[in-house]
Amino acid sequence: MNLLYQNDARGTYPASYYAATATSLEPFAPLTGEVRADVCVIGAGFTGLSAALHLAEAGRKVVLLEAQRIGFGASGRNGGQLGSGQRRDQLELEKMVGHDHARRLWELGEDAKARVRALTQKHDIDCDLRDGIAWAGSTDSEVQHLHAYAGHMKTRYGYEITSLDQESFVQICPSYAYRGGILDMGAAHLHPLKLTFGLARACVAAGVQIFEGSEVTALEQGAKALVTTHQGRVRADHVILATNGYSQNLSGRIARHVMPINNFIVATEPLGPRTAQVLARDIAVADDRFVINYFRLSADGRLLFGGGESYGTKFPRDVQAKAHKPMLEIFPHLKDVAIDYAWGGTLAITMKRMPYLAQLAPNVLSASGYSGHGVGNAIQAGAFMAEAVQGQSSGFETFAALPHMPFPGGASARAPLLALAMTWYSLRDRLGF
């Protein structure tokens, strides 16, 4: 089954709040005939746009191929949270890779945030960027863990995170579903599709050739790679795969290590003065549950709430209900509020919940599997692959050296096994374990 078309029509964006509020780009024509490039980038989300932009600014001739539309995938649909560090916290990373490597990954996480901010400033991208993400704990033990983490980050890394007891947390986020948490004002949130479109405009200005509606059907590796689409082909010295959750048909190696999953978001009607019933400050929130809830206010005062996951390939029949149910668990006082938008998206996870960067051939690089931490990681990974093409690969190699495990089971068994595991963890969330 081709995930590119299973849940979405060809050449159209989902009916999301993001698509309704971002100034759209004129469509780019499909690739026809044969073109030559120094680098062919496959996939026009955060990763591919970043790689193409950095390469073009370095003087390389770049062709960027997108099967659907610019920002069609997770880059244009996600929760818009620009988090600190990595998807795994520093305590977990220190156990996984040792303190020195974990510190390097923390520094790279700070670099990822800085890169996003720098790109928005350099290219004058207005994407509603605002500071602040709170992490919410549903149990006393989780709050204690979050507070210990904040202390660890201050002591070992010199990074300030504010600890919040339940009373302090409720003053910011009036929901008694949470027992407390932490507030990281060095993190941020933004409108992801506006950022994606801004990066695309910067690519065009830098000379990148962009082709939409150009699904890659074959990739022949060699000293000169040949990338084939339905109507054309690209001969290139280097290829960058930036297809994240849509990589399954392009690389068996990626498919073994990176699993696509679906997530869902609803946007309420504008809340007006009732925004104070959701957030008293313009920050984003994510919680500690295995099936994570995340939310924030839009620039026009809507609650954007993400929650619920599915592990088959197809979206549920009622996407709105998938995210609306957990929204009402957190904010039952919003049961009378109308939902104006509901959409789903396909992201990609790894077993270790860390990005999977790999050199698939001497001149073929890939980055994917951002596991819900992709706003910063993906843009940074694109830049790292651009640097690696030019012979500067330290950032790429740091992530490529991370230990990764393939998902168990063959191609037909991975999704059912993952669904079984996720169902168990979801049950644990509901029972309060």
Task: Please provide a written account of the structure.
The strands form two sheets. Strands 3, 4, 5, 6, 11, 12, 13, 14 and 15 form a nine-stranded mixed sheet that branches. Strands 1, 2, 7, 8, 9, 10, 16 and 17 form an eight-stranded mixed sheet that branches. With 433 residues, this protein is an alpha/beta fold. 35% of the residues lie in helices and 25% in strands. Mean pLDDT is 93; it is low at 424-433. The chain contains 13 helices and 17 strands. The two termini are 36 Å apart.
In short:
By secondary structure, the protein is α/β, with parallel strands linked by helices.
Secondary structure elements and pairings:
Blueprint lengths: L2 H4 L10 H5 L11 E10 L3 H12 L4 E4 L15 E2 L7 H8 L1 H24 L7 E8 L2 H18 L4 E3 L1 H7 L7 E10 L2 H15 L2 E3 L4 E5 L4 E5 L2 E10 L10 H6 L1 E10 L15 E4 L6 E4 L5 E8 L8 H12 L8 E11 L6 E6 L2 E5 L5 H16 L4 H7 L13 H18 L2
Parallel strand pairs: 1-2, 1-10, 2-7, 4-12, 10-17
Antiparallel strand pairs: 3-6, 4-6, 5-6, 8-9, 9-10, 11-14, 11-15, 12-13, 13-14, 16-17
Helix pairs in contact: 3-8, 3-11, 4-5, 5-11
Key descriptive features of the protein:
nine-stranded mixed β-sheet; 433 residues; disordered C terminus; globular; single chain
Between the first and last Cα atoms, what is the distance in angstroms? Answer: 36 Å
Structural class estimated from helices and strands: alpha/beta
**Mean of all residue-level pLDDT scores:** 93
Q: What's the SSE pattern? A: HHEHEEHHEHEHEHEEEEHEEEEHEEEHHH
Number of helices: 13
Poorly predicted runs of 5 or more residues: 424-433
* Portion in helices: 25-40%
How many E strands?
A: 17
Radius of gyration: 21 Å
Residues in β-strands, percent: 15-25%
**Could you describe the largest sheet, including whether it forms a barrel?**
9 strands, mixed
Q: Looking at the structure, what is the overall shape? A: globular
